[in-house]
Design a protein that fits this description.
The complex is a heterodimer of chains A (115) and B (400). Chain A is mostly helical and 115 residues long. Chain A is built from six helices and one strand, in the order H-H-H-H-H-H-E. Chain A has one domain. Helices cover 56% and strands 3% of the residues of chain A. The mean pLDDT of chain A is 95. Chain B is of the alpha+beta class. Helix content of chain B is 26%, strand content 25%. Chain B contains eight helices and 19 strands. In chain B, strand 16 and strand 17 form a beta hairpin. In chain B, helix 1 packs across helix 8, helix 4 packs antiparallel against helix 8 and helix 6 crosses helix 7. The longest helix of chain B is centred in the C-terminal third of the chain and has 33 residues. Classes of the chains: A mainly alpha (115), B alpha+beta (400). At the A-B interface, helix 2, helix 4, helix 5, helix 6 and strand 1 of A face strand 12, helix 6 and helix 7 of B.
Amino acid sequence: MMGKTTLPEGFSELERFVPDWAVTHSADRAARRLDSTSEEREAFFYAANDLAAPALALLDSKPLAELDEAETRLMQLMLSLAHVALAVEIQGDDESRHAVGARHMTITRASADPR
Amino acid sequence: MANQAPQQVSLQDEAIANLGTGPIPAGPYYRADYFELEREAVFRRTWLQIAHLSELPEPGSFIVRRVDIARASILITRGRDGQLRAFHNVCTHRGTELVSEEAGRRSLFSCPYHMWTFSDDGELRSAPDFERFYVDKSSCSLPRVAVEVCAGLIFINLDPDTDQSLRDFLGPIAPQLEKLPVARATRFSEYTYEIKANWKLTYDNFQENYHLRFIHPRSGAAAVGSDNPFGYPVKFGFHGPHRTQTIWSNPEAAPKPFQGFAFGKALEAALMDGCEMALAKDYFAIFPNFFMLGSPMTPFSHCVIPIAPDRSRGVIRMYWIGEDRNASQRFAREYQMATARDVHAEDREVIEAGQRGLSSGALSHIHMQEQEVLCRHLFHSVDTMVNAYQAQKLAGGERV
């Protein structure tokens, strides 16, 4: 990944999370949370946590339909962060137990999903 | 409101005085014969929430919904005149299910079997070689089903003889629903679950807070506190077969940092949508199997759909006003859906464990404490209808 920039300027710290967490559909983001290890979730959460406010501020500066590819990836990372934050910040070491029930909750439609 | 004390349930309250305090029979929560009675006495005779107006956005839109407990498939159309109509999704020739798609846009529906073709107002428009039949086309229209709308929520009533309007059915709850985001919603997020449990047992889990501290120690942390260790509601309301509760939340519970950031985004979005906060803590239980939370930040509905005596399906929707306005709102909607989903995910396992225990037949009765009065009220509402149906049957007045 060295030298390759797929995110807007200022967010290179999140570059290494793009392959796993820049996911198009909400159901896939929820599944990725359940299939990840606690180390993967924590690494993503602690790297992205402080960048959420500037990321959303940047993305809010234009209509969603006009986001370019790099901005779209950043948006997807923020949406994955929504799921991962619940695992790390709320569930903590209960996450693996929690995941048993979560696997039965099927997301069929989400506001963020492409139509 | 948040730091009000939980309500002490008064058994002298006229609305619940007849509910009693005794044990509740266990059979209705697993027995096949009781489920059969519910099919006829409740689900074929009352208004059922089935869809939302946003699913039929323009003339020509249609949806098809299966109502398993009534063994029915329902076609809902928005005609070229803009009017909403509902029909049994059954070709009047020889009973074939007419439409196989779940949703779409068209104004003519042709049966795949012999190409009888119906318009979106249910009339038989054409049928090949119809001269050889012994009936008029006018007597071959699709069977109508009563359909009405409140707060954007579409309800049907499978009773062909119903003389109760949806507004009469909902009573004082109707104007409150009209104030909620769902009334202006144009889209929704949705998640579903299958559960090996009776619909009432499943539904009851979501109308008592006694379990919160045990089943949701983390996701429900703000719902309990030292002043209210079980997170009991600050208020109950009873309106015919419907119930409401006003949820208590711990004024001292500080959100986690990221959670606070996300809630801030959700609140900002709700305020920009012009949502009222007055009903934000109110939880509406619409008989028989539908819930709606008043919160503009977490505007979810929850429908517990009966499939079999020990099997149900949950459908949870978050109703949103307008398209995602910007990245922050899109993020907030995702976070709020994921938050509600986390809470619901924690309930399923223990409800199924309850069903296994009940289905064993080991118990003749179960017990409900004062703060489980909403569960008691649901049982009594159902049982009253079942008893009335049985009495009517005995008197020879069963409707076919």
